[in-house]
UniProtKB/TrEMBL annotation, chain A:
Pfam families: PDZ (PF00595). GO terms for cellular component: basolateral plasma membrane; cell junction; cytoplasm; nucleus. It is a peripheral membrane protein. It comes from the Eukaryota. InterPro entries: PDZ (IPR001478), PDZ_sf (IPR036034), Synaptic_Scaffolding_LAP-MAGUK (IPR050614). GO terms for molecular function: protein kinase binding. It comes from Stegastes partitus (bicolor damselfish). The gene is tax1bp3. Residues 15-112 form the PDZ domain. GO terms for biological process: cell-cell adhesion; convergent extension involved in axis elongation; establishment or maintenance of epithelial cell apical/basal polarity; receptor clustering; receptor localization to synapse; regulation of signal transduction; Wnt signaling pathway. This is Tax1-binding protein 3. PANTHER family: DISCS LARGE, DISKS LARGE 1 TUMOR SUPPRESSOR PROTEIN. Coiled coil: none annotated. It is found in: Cell membrane; Cytoplasm; Nucleus.
From TrEMBL, chain B:
Residues 314-421 form the PH domain. Keywords: Coiled coil. Residues 541-551, 620-676 have a biased composition (Low complexity). The gene is rtkn. Residues 17-98 form the REM-1 domain. This is Rhotekin. GO terms for cellular component: actomyosin contractile ring.
């Protein structure tokens, strides 16, 4: 998940669609995020590259909408409803996820295990 | 707004006889109106005129800028609607006249022209990017030039406006969140999008000082005086037509002092722009930099334009048929109730299945690749059959339909032809049904005065729902403990719990006000402790008190008594805590969310806002996780309690506190196993003080 500034980022992503849960006056997704271009990337326990200022999932409420949708702790969020999340401030990321008029958020997330899965499947193919 | 080649718009020339007569009121419009359609339009016109008068009055009367802008917007919308209705009326009258003429002159034969079906067209997520000079945007110098903008969308006779948005140079795009749905649109529709803007300064005196002179004056007069003067002398509208570039008016628009909207940009969308995703369209910009209502538009507009023709959403034809698949037994006719809708012919066993939403027996695809023809007369029956052929993969599959009578066959063929015609007219809209989300009625967001700081924009949610959650948890705890106590196991700590409880309960009765001081944390702590029903019924009281007063005193003052009572509170709670060492505590979703919200509040990590009552809650929270670690000996926890009030232990305990709720996934309060230590490390690193996290 390391990137070279100025070069396009390629990643194996998974699409995750989360239906927001209504709780009184709030719509909650059931996870926490960390990171952002205004945060210290060295403190991110999930990132491989300690200069990665992306948005990461730090906590999933068990049984919550995000958990049901398949989001996992440690995922890096690349897009939310089409909006890029690789180069946003923390608050911008939070706002993009918590828009009151949206009932569903479609995320593109990436995680190490996805890349490994692709490599593994490609590896078995080559063996054949 | 006035396009000559737009047939939908007719104009009554200014000063023409018709206009004068209408103005004088000599002719009541009903003289011209024969049909009910006309009276409908007349009613709409009257309604809009009333609305316009109301808007004018409101504009004249209101003093606040926001109200004035909104009123001016409704005025503009009403004027546009009136003009559209008038032109519609004119057109209908012309059509009537033409009809009379043709009837007189020749026999009007049956109309062979097929009309395509109508449909719904929806436009949503309008976004217009702006192109500020980078010096303006980043350096943020000079006074903030603000404009109020809104979009007017017109299709056929329907005109809708979006909400008004205030734009200044801190915005990169103008976004309109509304979804506008037009119900009756033909495939040849033209959706006209117009962007109106109005300068939003303090003084609305309509001077027309040229901008250069104004800027000279403002710079020579000194900064603040010049600013005011410049606002007062805002250059008037730059386009030659001063009433917003509108077509010639039929009825005099009352000139009201106040903000006036001017057309900034426009574009027209049609069927070729319809797509199920976002697309960018070009805007035609009117006005230039000298105008007061100018905004640096990038020149394009993004939106999602979707269309649902009725042939895709409604049943076009339905009836009983007999179907036979080609290549099958020639005598195996299946009787079905068929419904033609969208891209398929649904065949149900019985008519009742349609309403009951039962799956159809089978479905025959009807799309642009389907071929339908009437076959030769079947020797057995006198009725023609209809053959429908589709290509599935490489194979061609043919279904043969037959009806009971010749008229039915003819009707079905007619329906198929009409369906094919509709699909050819609506083109890409008939490939798949596009989703149109109807705007849900929701309460308008409360307008908060802009205070400039991000923190001011945060709304501190009331913990009303927390009280219900907490009492639910408590009720469950009570039940669980009741069961346990019935089993006979009564841990030794219960006695401590009891005596402490009496103390704390007594105290808490009096000190509800002080309790409110801890409100963000008390509900946090309480659910973690199981409660036995007989022994602490007061806990229920505790929670309700806490929740009732939580709102009022969420910004608690650190009164000395709160500190003082920091002691007995934790002692009771910890003892309650220690009662659950060996039991799995199931956690609820809402509780989790609330806990982390509260934690976030307490540490200032959630939503990035600082809770002013941070010191006391954290000091009270501190003993919690520590006691969760080692519940065995009360003494140790007591000693930790003793130093909890001091700030030195706060820092260390805070970091632990941030992850204690999570570590209780499995075994809540036992000594952490080595496997969990890595998790603990993770939790330590997730300390919001080092790395901001937000709950969403």
């Amino acid at each position: 998940m390391s990137f070279v500034p100025g070069q396009p980022v390629t990643a194996v992503v998974q699409r995750i669609e989360i239906q927001k849960l209504r709780q009184g006056n709030n719509l909650i997704l059931g996870f926490s995020i960390g990171g952002g271009i205004d945060q210290d990337p060295g403190q991110n326990p999930f990132s491989e590259d300690k200069t990665d200022k992306g948005i990461y999932v730090t906590r999933i409420t068990p049984g919550g909408p995000a958990d049901v949708a398949g989001l996992m702790m440690g995922d890096k969020i690349m897009q939310v409803n089409g909006w890029d999340m690789t180069m946003v401030t923390h608050d911008k990321a939070r706002k993009r996820l918590t828009k009151k008029n949206e009932d569903v958020v479609r995320l593109l997330v990436t995680r190490k295990s996805l890349e490994e899965a692709v490599k593994h499947s490609m590896g078995t193919y080559h063996k054949q | 707004m006035f396009c000559r080649n737009q047939t939908a718009r007719a104009t009554v020339a200014r000063g023409s006889a018709l206009e004068m007569e209408i103005r004088r009121g000599k002719f009541r419009k009903s003289v011209f109106l024969d049909t009910s359609q006309d009276s409908d339009i007349q009613k709409k016109i009257d309604h809009e005129i009333r609305m316009r008068d109301g808007a004018c009055k409101l504009l004249a009367a209101c003093s606040q800028r926001d109200q004035a802008l909104e009123a001016a917007k409704s005025l503009q919308t009403c004027s546009t609607r009136i003009m559209a209705y008038m032109s519609e009326l004119q057109r209908m009258k012309e059509a009537q006249v033409m009809q009379k003429v043709t009837r007189r002159s020749s026999d009007a034969g049956p109309m062979d022209d097929r009309l395509p079906c109508k449909g719904k067209v929806a436009i949503s997520d309008l976004r217009i990017p702006l192109m500020w000079k980078d010096t303006e945007y980043f350096k943020n110098k000079g006074e903030l030039h603000r404009c109020a903008v809104f979009c007017l969308l017109q299709l056929g006779g329907e005109i809708f406006d979006t909400d008004m948005v205030i734009v200044d140079r801190t915005l990169t795009d103008i976004c309109f969140d509304n979804t506008i749905v037009f119900s009756e649109a033909g495939p040849g529709f033209e959706l006209r999008v117009e962007l109106y803007s109005c300068c939003s300064e303090d003084d609305y005196s309509a001077g027309s000082t040229p901008r250069k002179l104004a800027s000279k004056l403002s710079s020579s007069l000194g900064r603040s005086a010049g600013k005011k003067l410049r606002a007062a002398m805002e250059p008037g509208p730059c386009s030659p037509v001063s009433n917003g570039g509108a077509a010639p008016l039929l009825l005099p628009v009352p000139s009201v002092p106040g903000p006036k909207y001017h057309l900034l940009a426009h574009t027209t969308l049609s069927l070729s722009h319809v797509q199920d995703s976002f697309r960018t369209h070009d805007l035609t910009i009117s006005g230039n930099e000298e105008c007061s209502y100018w905004l640096p538009l990038y020149g394009s507009m993004c939106c999602r334009l979707a269309a649902q023709p009725h042939c895709m959403t409604q049943q076009m034809m339905s009836g009983c048929l007999k179907v036979k698949q080609c290549g099958g037994d020639p005598q195996s006719w299946t009787k079905v109730y068929a419904v033609l809708k969208g891209t398929s012919l649904f065949c149900y066993h019985r008519q009742e299945d349609v309403e009951a939403n039962i799956e159809p027996a089978f479905t025959i695809g009807i799309n642009k690749d389907t071929r339908i023809r009437a076959s030769e007369k079947d020797p057995h029956s006198k009725v023609q059959n209809i053959c429908i052929s589709n290509q599935y993969g490489g194979e061609e599959v043919t279904h043969t339909l037959t009806t009971d009578s010749r008229e039915d066959t003819h009707r079905w063929m007619e329906a198929f032809w009409q369906h094919f015609y509709d699909m050819s007219q609506w083109k890409q809209c008939c490939d798949d049904l596009m989703k149109i989300e109807l705007p849900s009625p929701r309460k308008p967001a409360p307008v908060t005065p802009k205070q400039g700081s991000l923190y001011h924009e945060m709304v501190i949610e009331s913990s009303d729902d927390l009280s219900s959650t907490v009492s639910d948890i408590l009720a469950r705890r009570m039940q669980e403990l009741e069961l346990r106590s019935q089993l006979g196991t009564s841990p030794t700590w219960m006695s401590v719990f009891e005596e402490n409880n009496a103390k704390s309960a007594g105290r808490t009765r009096h000190c509800t006000s002080r309790l409110s001081g801890h409100s963000p944390c008390t509900p946090h702590r309480l659910p973690r402790s199981p409660a036995s029903p007989h022994r602490c019924p007061q806990l229920g009281l505790l929670s309700s008190d806490a929740s009732l007063t939580s709102d009022s005193d969420s910004h608690c003052s650190t009164s000395p008594c709160s500190q003082h009572h920091g002691w007995p509170e934790p002692s009771s709670s910890f003892s309650l805590l220690s009662s659950s060492p060996s039991r799995l505590r199931p956690r609820t979703l809402s509780l989790d969310a609330k806990l982390s919200t509260l934690r976030g509040r307490g540490y200032g990590g959630g939503g990035a806002f600082q809770c002013p009552c941070q010191p006391p809650p954290s000091s009270l929270l501190a003993p919690l996780p520590i006691s969760s670690r080692s519940p065995r000996s009360q003494r140790s926890t007591q000693t930790t309690l003793s130093c909890s009030s001091s700030t030195s232990s706060n820092s260390s305990s805070n970091s632990e506190g941030s992850h204690s709720p999570e570590s209780s996934e499995g075994v809540p309060f036992s000594r952490p196993s080595p496997a969990r230590r890595s998790l603990r490390n993770l939790r330590a690193r997730l300390d919001p003080r080092n790395w901001l996290q937000s709950q969403v």
